[in-house]
Structure formats: structure tokens, C-alpha cells
Amino acid sequence: xxxxxxxxxxxxxxxxxxxxxxxxxxxxxxxxxxxxxxxxxxxxxxxxxxxxxxxxxxxxxxxxxxxxxxxxxxxxxxxxxxxxxxxxxxxxxxxxxxxxxxxxxxxxxxxxxxxxxxxxxxxxxxxxxxxxxxxxxxxxxxxxxxxxxxxxxxxxxxxxxxxxxxxxxxxxxxxxxxxxxxxxxxxxxxxxxxxxxxxxxxxxxxxxxxxxxxxxxxxxxxxxxxxxxxxxxxxxxxxxxxxxxxxxxxxxxxxxxxxxxxxx
Length: 264
Description:
The chain is of the alpha+beta class and 264 residues long. Helix content is 21%, strand content 31%. The chain folds into 3 domains: 1-31; 32-190, Jelly Rolls, CATH 2.60.120; 204-264, no CATH class.
């Protein structure tokens, strides 16, 4: 009897310790708070009802509305844009017409659940690997410290993931198959009814894109104003054409920005 009693007490003690540790972790996780450090336009949180959010330090605004807690959904309007920062220094940027839940799974690792729209995430990793997960209706993105974009593009949950810096692991939520690793400047689209495709080719980066736009603008300038900068010398036919065109404003020339990645 003594041995059984001692064993039972030991088991009870272990159970109590386990419960205490679990409760402590849950409390620590539930106390996480994502602070609004920048905000423009209409940005709200669903807290029983839709309530407007304010940037940190806004005079007269309640401190509780300068951030979001776990399980709370952020909603942005057509002009809404905000940047949030978590306690470890990581940030996430929410773009217009988006819906995203902060820590929907009540764990620090499960950082965000993107329902619709676009976010940009920067994971702080100065103190070593920082394991985080971002989920969408069709994908789970696992990271340790990197900068990347995630967009849910339609009601079917089509998800775009593009990496600017570092590396992420993408797993399909609905289809079987191995995950895909995305490195810097790689992207992928995840469709609800298709297995993961291969990652897109690395993009050309910002430099080539900038020079393409500059070259196109200069080309349009020459075509629309042949007697101007590169026209003939003053007094020549080219210069006369340039003078005749004075007072007329050329239409703005803006090269279309590339879509995120492209079809995949």
C-alpha cells in the first residue's frame, strides 16, 4: 500500500507541475501585444465590434487601441496601411483591403493568419534563429529570420509568397507533397486545387527595373520632343521643332510595375 500511495503522489505531482508549466506558457503567450508603430487611413481591430486603431503615441487615443492581442483580427480599408511590431522586434506590415489575425493559434511561433490581402513580414533574428509561421487558407510559411511578402489574392485562397531576404519553407495546407524552399528573390503561387509548383526564377532585382524605367522614360521624351534635348543645334530644323513644342506638356510616362512574380 505504501508503495502504491507513493507512486500515486509522484504521478499527481508530475501532473500538477505539467499543468503549471502549460498555464505559465499560455499566460506568457496571451500577454503578447503587437504595437502599431505606423498607421495611415482606415485600420481597425475586431474586438467584439470593429474599433479603430491608432499609432503608438497618438494623443488622446486609448493605449489598448494602439495595438492588437492574440486572436484579434486586423482589418484595413481601401486606404488603410499599418506597421505592427512585436515584443521580439519583428514587424509585419498590413496593406489596404486586408484581413489578418494576430497569433490565431495562441502561440508565439504561429505569428499571423492571413485571410485576405497582403502583408510584408520582417522577422528579427539578431539573437539567433527566430522560428515563426505565417498561415493562409492554402499555405503555411515557416521562417527563422527573413523579409518576405505574402498575399492572398482571391476567395479561393490563392497565395503568393515572395522572398526579399533570407529563406522560407512553404507547405501546402490542402494538397499532399513535400514543402518548397524559397531563397532570396524567389517566389511561388499556391493554388487550392494544385500541388506546389516549382519556385519562380530569381527576379532581376531593383537595379535593372530602375534602369528599365529610366530608359523607357528617356525614349518617350525623345519621341514626344524630337527637337528638345537631343534635337539639332539651335536654328536647325530640329531646334525649330523643339521651339514649336514649347508650352505643351508631355503626358506623364510611367512604366508599369511588374506584378509580384508572375504566373506560376
